[in-house]
Amino acid sequence: QVQLVESGGGLVQAGGSLRLSCKVSGRTFSSYAMGWFRQAPGKERSFVASISWSGMRIYDSDSVKARFTISRDNAENTVYLQMNSLKPEDTAVYYCAVRQGAVSRFRREYDYWGQGTQVTVSS
Predict the structure, then answer these.
(1) CB distance 16 to 119 below 8 Å
(2) Can you tell me the mean pLDDT for 87-94?
């Protein structure tokens, strides 16, 4: 069984920053990729960023890449999402997920999910 616990969400003004964390525990794969997704009210859960065991990164878009940074600490089984220059449209529940193997932007390819952490950006 694999557990993922996100933290670091909250309320922030536009232009502000937040750092999300996701701790993985339990039985894990020998090498795994991790991803961040988000779900805004009334919308489907969408890809934000993913990082491989070795540190390869992919992002949803140039806009996200310019403002967000995904990183990980393999010794701590933790992945981070540093979010800068936040906008009201970044408001969503943010989820982390884990999958065996390479990075992926496809929700269906992830095996385990956290419970989510709320990020609210006020204008």
Answers:
(1) no
(2) 97
